[in-house]
Specification:
The chain has 164 residues and is an alpha/beta fold. The chain is built from 4 helices and 8 strands, in the order ββαββαβαβαββ. The strands form 2 sheets. The protein has a 4-stranded mixed beta sheet with strand order 2-1-4-3. Strands 5-6-8-7 form a 4-stranded mixed beta sheet, covered by helices on one side. The longest helix has 18 residues. It is rod-shaped, with a radius of gyration of 31 Å. It starts with 9 loop residues before the first strand and ends with a strand. The mean pLDDT is 89.
């Protein structure tokens, strides 16, 4: 930028993006000073180097603002959890199924947790059946990322949304 540019002659581009041509470094500095702009080297490896006249402070401000806007609009994927029990009734099942479907449609992953109490642990196949029923009901919105696995008194699996 400006005084840090050493190689002369340079290929100069004006503030609208038009080619000025190959000029000496002193001539380019004079033109930039006359318009109140900075010289910024955009292609230092080419011969002659390409230098553009621009308001560097304004350029940095717009770049920072665009980066901030992009960060604001990006969606971070979260893992939402829905908990079940092996003997879940149909209405409760449908209610929690709707929640899981909404989470998947929002683009989040869903962790389905089957919680066992007392002697329910002796029949993990009942919990596995409920989880597999869930995956078939959510089949058009999700795919399995992690198959059901047992951890202590809980069995859990993770579903991820299908790419739309």
């Amino acid at each position: 930028m400006n005084e840090q540019i050493r190689i002369s002659p340079i290929r100069l581009i004006d503030e609208e993006g038009g080619q000025v041509g190959i000029v000496s470094l002193d001539d380019a500095r004079a033109r930039a000073a006359q318009r109140g702009l900075d010289l910024v080297e955009v292609a230092p490896d080419s011969r002659p180097p390409v230098v553009r006249m621009m308001d560097y402070g304004k350029y940095k401000y717009k770049a920072a603002r665009a980066a901030r806007e992009a960060r604001r609009k990006q969606h971070t994927v979260q893992i939402k959890e829905v908990k079940f029990r092996p003997g879940i009734e149909d209405h409760d099942y449908e209610f929690k199924l709707r929640h899981a479907r909404r989470f998947l449609q929002e683009g989040n992953k869903v962790k389905l947790t089957m919680m066992f109490r007392g002697r329910q642990v002796t029949h993990p196949e009942l919990g596995r059946d409920v989880l597999l029923r869930l995956t078939s009901d959510l089949g058009e919105w999700a795919m399995i990322e992690q198959y059901p696995n047992f951890e202590g008194r809980q069995m859990s699996m993770i579903l991820k949304p299908l790419k739309s």
